[in-house]
Specification:
- The chain has about 80 residues and is of the alpha+beta class.
- The protein has two domains: about 1-50; about 50-85, no CATH class.
- It contains two helices and six strands, in the order αββββββα.
- It has helices spanning about 1-20, 65-85; strands at about 30, 40, 45, 50, 50-55, 60.
- The strands form three sheets. It has a two-stranded parallel sheet. Strands 2-3 form a two-stranded antiparallel sheet. The protein has a two-stranded antiparallel ribbon with strand order 5-6.
- This is Reverse transcriptase domain-containing protein.
C-alpha cells in the first residue's frame, strides 16, 4: 500500500510539472477483495473507491461481469437512435 501511495504522489508531482494535472474527483481506486482498505491520499484528500470504470470505451470491473457493459452499450445505442429520429 505504501508503494501505491508513493506512486500516486510521484505521478501527481510530475503531472503538475508537465501536465495534465490529476483530477482528485475523477481519480479513483479499484481494489480486489484481498487488498488493504486503507485510503490512498492525493493532496490531502482520500481517493474514492470504485467497483467499475470505463476505460477506452469499455466497462472494467473487478468481477468481470459484462452486465454493466451491455447495459451501457444499450443505453448509448438507444440514445444514438433517438438522435437520428
Amino acid at each position: 500500500l505504501e508503494e501505491l501511495q508513493q506512486m500516486v504522489k510521484e505521478l501527481n508531482e510530475v503531472s503538475r510539472i508537465i501536465g495534465p494535472t490529476m483530477n482528485r474527483t475523477k481519480t479513483m481506486v479499484m481494489r480486489n477483495e484481498w487488498a488493504d482498505a486503507s485510503p490512498i491520499v492525493l493532496e490531502g484528500s482520500a481517493l474514492s473507491d470504485t467497483d467499475c470504470y470505463v476505460y477506452l470505451g469499455r466497462v472494467i470491473s473487478m468481477d468481470s461481469n459484462l452486465r454493466a457493459e451491455i447495459m451501457r452499450r444499450r443505453k448509448c445505442a438507444s440514445s444514438a437512435m433517438g438522435s437520428i429520429k
